[in-house]
TrEMBL record:
<dbReference type="InterPro" id="IPR036812">
    <property type="entry name" value="NAD(P)_OxRdtase_dom_sf"/>
</dbReference>
<feature type="domain" description="NADP-dependent oxidoreductase">
    <location>
        <begin position="19"/>
        <end position="319"/>
    </location>
</feature>
<dbReference type="InterPro" id="IPR050791">
    <property type="entry name" value="Aldo-Keto_reductase"/>
</dbReference>
<protein>
    <submittedName>
        <fullName>Aldo/keto reductase</fullName>
    </submittedName>
</protein>
<dbReference type="GO" id="GO:0005737">
    <property type="term" value="C:cytoplasm"/>
</dbReference>
<dbReference type="GO" id="GO:0016491">
    <property type="term" value="F:oxidoreductase activity"/>
</dbReference>
<dbReference type="InterPro" id="IPR023210">
    <property type="entry name" value="NADP_OxRdtase_dom"/>
</dbReference>
<keyword id="KW-0560">Oxidoreductase</keyword>
<dbReference type="Pfam" id="PF00248">
    <property type="entry name" value="Aldo_ket_red"/>
</dbReference>
Length: 342
């Protein structure tokens, strides 16, 4: 599905984008304080790195900081060169219901809610359309056909360009694809989260649906920069994530040490090895990297020139065998919302 080396196409109906997307979540939420000026500078650096002729993919959610992330992206695009801003594609997730204190209380996928969420997002982003629109988690009370049908109406009205899905399983992929063309499934995929390989990825491929992979560094855990003594701010997702707790954390960091040896032999960083591995899994996969600083972004972009030979891939998978991660990828209550895990 590659158009050229600067782009990968999201599924058979989606847009062609730069092979690495920038996930902006951490600039507003979930990983502790972020620096606003540095966040905007990181978005600008990403836009700069995307060559002419390719589209830059910025990923967000309307609930990342309750609108904060969309407003930040809007500001970054307004202060970027017009030509770069025009080439930016924005992928937005919606549906999560929040509290003032930051809690998550469920998901709303009713058609009237979809239209409401969309109206607010367009306003916050300062755009007249969203490039890829998707519900973050399936609303258990609303058939996916109805939620996707509402987005399809927004496509017809010109407010949305493409329909995506997030963290859904194979059955839901099929049901959604029967309603309207789906560009991509956004789902966690990394050396230590390979659950999609059994059924979900083959189904997406059969249906011509691309994958935007998130958590390719497992939220920093396999970036090579995380350590046991890292202090996490209150509310940091990683403070609750099973993979970052006690013995699990130690076992997972042991895997990172094994990966570091492979990376060092190649003369690249651990993060670059982990991102390059995801890039190597198929031309239909676009990793989203959650860089929120320019130095981290530069490191991530460096993964695009890392060539992994068959021997490298074997060494990587020996260092981090499939299924070796200790702990689930979300706390139990959040696992229950994952259609992809049912
Ligand atoms: N659909 C969904 O359910 C869903 C869920 C989660 C995320 N997402 C999307 O996917 C995006 C990426 O997810 P993520 O942020 O959890 O994943 P990630 O890329 O696995 O992790 C990002 C974290 O890794 C650390 N890191 C260390 N070195 C890095 C490097 N060279 N480049 C980038 N990050 C580095 C950063 O923390 P430090 O800089 O502090 O070390 C950063 O906070 C999000 O921004 C969001 O848009 C979607």
């Amino acid at each position: 599905m590659t158009t050229n080396e600067n782009t990968r196409t999201l599924g058979s109906t989606g847009p062609a984008v730069f092979p690495l997307g920038l996930g902006c979540m951490g600039m507003s939420a979930l990983y502790g304080e972020a620096d606003r000026t540095e966040s905007i500078a990181t978005i600008h650096a990403y836009l700069d790195a995307v060559p002419e002729g390719a589209a830059a993919l910025l990923d967000t959610g309307d609930f990342y900081g309750m609108g904060h992330n969309e407003m930040l992206i809007g500001e970054a695009l307004r202060s970027a060169p017009a030509e770069a801003a025009e080439r930016a594609l924005i992928s937005v997730k919606f549906g999560a219901l929040r509290t003032v204190e930051g809690g998550f209380t469920g998901y709303d996928g009713r058609p009237e809610a979809v239209k409401n969420f969309l109206a607010y997002s367009l306003q916050r982003l300062g755009r007249d359309h969203i490039d890829v629109y998707r519900i973050a988690r399936v609303d258990p009370d609303v058939p996916i056909e109805e939620t996707v049908g509402a987005i399809a109406e927004a496509v017809e009205a010109g407010h949305v360009r493409h329909i995506g899905l997030s963290e859904v399983g194979a059955d839901t992929l099929r049901r959604a694809a029967a309603v309207a063309p789906i560009s991509d499934l956004q789902i966690e995929y990394s050396l230590i989260s390979r659950g999609i390989e059994a059924e979900i990825l083959p189904t997406a491929r059969e249906l011509g649906i691309g994958v935007t992979a998130y958590g390719v560094l497992s939220r920093g855990l396999i970036s090579g920069h995380f350590s046991r003594d890292r202090e996490l701010a209150p509310g940091d997702f990683r403070g609750m994530s099973p993979r970052f707790q006690g013995e699990n954390l130690q076992r997972n960091l042991d895997l990172v040490d094994a990966l570091r040896k492979v990376a060092e032999e190649k003369g690249v960083s651990v993060a670059q090895t982990a991102i390059a591995w995801v890039l190597s899994r198929g031309e239909d996969i676009v990793p989203l990297v959650g860089a929120r600083r320019r130095d981290r972004l530069a490191e991530a972009l460096g993964a695009m020139t890392v060539e992994l030979t068959a021997a490298d891939l074997a060494a990587i998978e020996e260092a981090v065998p499939a299924g070796a991660a200790a702990g689930e990828r979300y706390p139990e209550a959040q696992m229950a919302h994952l259609d992809s895990e049912h």
